[in-house]
Known about the structure:
Blueprint: E1 2-6, E2 15-16, H1 26-34, E3 39-43, H2 51-69, E4 71-72, H3 74-79, H4 85-92, E5 93-94, E6 99-103, H5 109-130, H6 138-152, E7 155-159, H7 161-167, H8 170-175, E8 184-191, E9 198-209, H9 218-221, H10 229-243, E10 249-259, E11 271-273, E12 279-281, H11 289-302, E13 305-312, H12 316-322, E14 327-331, H13 334-347, E15 351-353, H14 358-363, E16 372-373, H15 382-391, E17 399-404, E18 410-411, E19 421-422, H16 427-434
Parallel strand pairs: 1-6, 2-3, 3-6, 9-10, 9-13, 12-16, 13-17, 14-15
Antiparallel strand pairs: 4-5, 7-8, 8-10, 11-12, 14-17, 18-19
Helix pairs in contact: 1-2, 2-5, 5-10, 10-16, 11-15, 13-16
Amino acid sequence: MKIQWVNKVQEGIPSWTPAEGGGWQPEDIRKLGRKRSGKLQLLLNGESGSVEDLRQEAREIVRELYRGAYEFSKKTLKEWKQESVWQMRRRLADFGDGEFFLVSDTDLTEAVEQGTLEGCCAGYARALGDLPNNYLHAQEMAAYAAALAEDLGCSIQLLGNEELKDLGCGGILAVNQGSSRPAVLAALRYEGAPASPLTALVGKGVMFDAGGYHLKDIDGMKGMKLDMCGAADVLETFEILVRRKVKKNLLAVLVLVENVISPDACKMGDVITMMGGQTVEIYNTDAEGRLILADGLEYAQRQGAQRVIDAATLTYGCQAALGDEVTGVFCNSDSLFDAWKQAADTAREKIWRLPLMEVYHRNLEWSVCADFANYAPGKGAAASTAACFLEKFIHPETEWLHLDMVGTATNRGEQKGLAMGASGAMIGSLTRLLED
């Protein structure tokens, strides 16, 4: 796909014009990109709003054109030989060969470049999610992260089973216990503002979630290769921000495991000790995401992060409450949430804040042999309960925001101008929050 800014109408090319005042919806733009071929000019005359508003609008339009055009390349998968995932990413994320012209008297070159970077990186995140699990285990994902870090000139730390054991990461190790492959915690660091606070992005990376001994049925297991979309979206958000050289200090933490069955897999009733020292009774082996995230959150804070944001396909309870187009948000800071809401509004992504309350904490504190359990049977409020489990690992001085993305991280059919599969949700909002 090719998108460029021009300052005059192109003769003989079909035109599209947004409603007055920028009255377009992301779905409208994605449907234009979804055609994936031909030429189209988008007339952005800027009769209303400031120049900055127009440039922001153009940036969002370019990003949504890429989101609509994206398809996972089955042909590339078929032709794959010995190359790494990193080497194949530009072929796996197929954006078609459409050509778009953004027509405006205002120079939109930078807006097009920004939107293109976001659109491409969102496509790479979606390709990671859409890859079959047998092509992308934790080690392959970690190798991709390492190649990206080298390309960006960032440092990376890769922790395997032995290092995780030394750190006391009982949650990560317990969830991965049934796998024949080691778990990995990958931490990429970027220093864009020396001596400034550190913000951490923590992504849930369950490369495949069979549910453990609480085994999912065939419908529940469908799409469980996508249970690592939080990690993919965090990683590609990190790439966008570093390539734009934002004046921030950033840490991206990817917690990579498989939740499968073997004679060694953790069982209902097992008690584990987390990195923070708390003991947890595993009541539900399919409530694994909160166990690995808790260790990831603790790790990020020990690295000095004063603000932590996690992204996870965590609970179907959140999807049941909010559906497939709205991401659930939990936050312990009103000022951080206000900034997040503004970022999401700018990126035109739908969010809704859900409660963190003491009652949900108490619902987890029923175990007779551990500090608390990873599940509250029969209590309802699954999304808030899971969020409150995570909150138990947040230090008092840490600002924290949690995204429950089960509904929005994947598209369950080709609709809303998106191909079926990973969606790249919240990358736009995360970028708006953390850019300069």
